[in-house]
Amino acid sequence: MDAVPFPTAGPRHPIPQPGAARHALLRLVTVMLDSDDEREVLWRAMAAIAATGPFTAEAAYAVHHGLARRCPPRRVASSAVARPGSATAREPAVDPTGEAPAEAATAEVVAADRLDRRIDALDGHSRDLHEPGGLWVRAIALRYRDHCLGYLVVRSPTTPSPEETALTDLLAQQTGIALARLTVRRGEPARAGSGSLPGIGDLSETGNLLGTGNLLGSEGGSPTAGLGATVSALASRLAVHDALSRAAVSGQGEAGILRALHDHTGFAALTEDRFGNPRAWAGPGRGEPRRGPSGGPHPGPESRRRDALIHGARRRPGAVRDRDLLVVPIEMAGDLLGVVALVDPDRRATDTDTSALEQAALVLAPQLSHERRLAELEPQLRRDLVDRLISGEATDDVFTQAAALGHDLHRPHKVAVLEWPGTAERAALGDAVARAAGRLRQDVLIGARGGATVVLVAGEDRRDPGAELHRAVSDELGTGAGAIGVGGHCDVLTDLPHSYDEAVRALTVRRHSQDPHGSTGFEELGLCRMMGTGNGEREADRFVREWLGRLLHYDARHHTELVTTLSRYLDSGGSYDATSETLLIHRSTVRYRLQRIREITGHDLGDVETRLNLHVATRIRNVLDAPR
Questions:
Q1: β-pairing, 278-282 with 320-322?
Q2: Which of 236, 346, 408, 474 lies most in the core, judged by the most C-beta atoms within 10 Å?
Q3: Residue-wise over 570-606: b if at least 16 C-beta within 10 A, else e?
Q4: Angle, helix 608-624 to helix 535-558, in steps of 10 degrees
Q5: DSSP 8-class letter at 620
Q6: 3-class state of residue 15 by DSSP
């Protein structure tokens, strides 16, 4: 596609520059009022459109007698190809071979002819002309009432925002009105096959500029006043868009965007999530009771009313009123992210305020969408990082990954493993741990392994094996029916798998103890601390089989709990009453089971050394039964 030279083209800016836009708009007004050259009107309109977004001029066409005729810029008009609709010729670049310039010129002529044919085939309405994978290209129809008077063809390296597209459409309306005035000045006869332009005779130099009044909501006024008001409205919209865009990239986030909206409208501004829960507020009166879609989930009819309101707002453009609020949904790719609203109980908001609210929704959409993606992605990133660390698969890049998540791995750490049977979902336990750690000012990384939650706790504190964390998590969940095992401190990352193994052993001992709820540190395990993997564990397993093998075999065949009874009896110091209370059985049942243990094993439970070996064997057995 040929690229007609654009006299006013400059650097492309991703964010429109309000100063440049206002300057171009004012020059467009001057040309519209004073010029008799439709080509100048068309290209000044292109300059104004380019100032509103990342647009570059492609071509301009005027429609006469039902035919679209290309209008090149004035400074290259003398070099245009003779027949209407052909490409504008350029001075060929000097090339030693003499082939490249000719080929380029031929390609430009072919592209221009193709564009001319596509414009001729249009039906008088704006159409997208870009192809899949190509630059965004659009033919903007310049219409007055039911008649098309020309086209502006613009391209963009990216798809323009709805706000930028709306501004170009508004400028196209004004350009169509200006072309209609030129038609009146020239006394041009009716279009062939289309009849005359109704009301065109009313468009005199001093009369009412028809269409502008309708656009601005007023039926009267001079052309200067009407176009001046339009320029003022456009400049205001550009200023708001610029302020909101700058707030979005300032790092102040959602709160900064709402402050910019409040500053430009004077109304308190707020955002809510898609469920109606308050997110952020800017302006006065936050503590005052309000009616509207916010305030958290609503019961019954009020919740259904709000859902119906938001559903209706998503089906049509613009703001909707909900009692004291003007509300606009915040959407991204068809997904509702929340709403933004202005508090307007006296119904004083103008079209300018409503436009600012709509622009704020467009600017907030990528912010809220990004937050949602992070909220979904960050827990998984943390889980993956923790899993690598406790599995011994960590490489040097884990320091960078942890830093990106706000965690410093260069400090000493210890591993804690938590199980809370009363928690419906593992994610809920992870969230509770995060809140509890925040209250305790502990810096943690939270992951999972199997059915347990794994927490890497940073810091030098060796005094508390996890009792404070257990109490804080219990407060968050409303139940203390959980257990925590805490491994030893690690000064280097390579020791974290060992700390994890220690934490699992400590958790298993706690779960098999008389008080299964609470926390146990590996340092508290006594003789069980000496057990490790490899040969040490195999020796421990042989020791258990030697002292408990017959009981374990008997329990497996007869579905009894003699080993558990022996363990609780030895843990209680040989107390019948404590054992019966722990196992929730009668004291005589305890006595009977101990007698059966003596008969099966042949051991004298009154012998001190025998009791010690049996006690150690039961404790080791509890650790060896730990889930891996």
A1: unpaired
A2: 474
A3: bbbeeeeebbbebbebeeeebeebbeebeeebebebe
A4: 90
A5: H
A6: coil
Alpha helices of 187-222 — where are they, by DSSP H? 212-216
Four-point Cα dihedral 82, 87, 91, 93, nearest 10: -150
Q: Whole-angstrom Cα distance, residue 194 to residue 144?
A: 13
Spatial separation of the C-alpha atoms in residues 124 and 149, rounded to whole Å: 8
Q: Give the pair of three-digit tokens for residue 70.
A: 């290309």
Question: DSSP 3-state assignment of 322?
Answer: strand
Could you tell me the two tokens for 233? 């409205």
Supply 369's token pair.
């969408």
**Partners of residue 281 on adjacent β-strands:** 270
Q: What is the pLDDT of residues 264-278, one digit of tens each?
A: 888 999 998 877 888
User: ∠ at Cα 303 (299, 306), nearest 5°?
Assistant: 155
For 334-340, what is the mean pLDDT? 85
* For range 524-532, the mean pLDDT: 64
Share of the chain above pLDDT 70, in %: 74
Q: Which residues contact 78 (CB under 8 A, 6 or more apart)?
A: none
> Quick check: helix, strand or coil at residue 128?
strand
Let me know the angle formed at the C-alpha of 102 by 99 and 104, rounded to the nearest 5 degrees.
Answer: 105
Strands 518-521 and 483-486: parallel
Is the sign of the CA dihedral 201, 205, 208, 213 positive or negative?
positive
**DSSP H/E element including 577:** helix 576-583
Distance between CA atoms of residues 621 and 543, nearest Å: 9
Residue 529 DSSP one-character state:
G
Q: How does DSSP assign 270-315, residue by residue?
A: EEEETTS-EEEEESS-TTS---SS-SSPPPHHHHHHHHHHHHHHHH
pLDDT above 90 covers a percentage of the chain that reads 18
Query: Hey, what's the torsion of the CAs at 404, 410, 414, 418, to 10 degrees?
Result: 0
Which of these, 42, 371, 384, lies nearest to 179 by C-alpha position? Answer: 42
Q: Which amino acid is at 129?
A: L
Residue where the block lists tokens 């698969």: 393
CA–centroid distance for 300 within its chain: 30
296 vs 277: CA distance, rounded Å: 4
Three-state DSSP at 483 gives strand
Q: Supply the pTM of this predicted model.
A: 0.44
Angle in degrees, 0-180, between the axes of helices 223-249 and 18-34, rounded to the nearest 10 = 170
* Per-residue pLDDT at 508 exceeds 60: yes
Task: Say how far apart CA 200 and CA 178 lie, in whole Å.
Answer: 11
Q: What pLDDT is attached to residue 455?
A: 94
